[in-house]
Amino acid sequence: MKTATVGDIQKNFAKVLRNINSGEEVTITKRGKPVAKITALGPKTEIDWPDFHNEAIELNGKPVSNIVIEGREDRF
Length: 76
Fold this sequence. Notes:
alpha+beta; 3 strands
């Protein structure tokens, strides 16, 4: 995440806007203290998604749906 002062934003807004559109977040500071954060509205052009299928853990035992049904049987 980059930081920029209020003056930097005023002088170089087009450059800052290009950085934001490329997926960067910019923290705006005033007198050394953060006052705002600017981010893009949409996602970055390329999203690095994790591979959930290969990282999945195989579970053993009864399916959860069977456990829920068994738990409800004693109520009826």
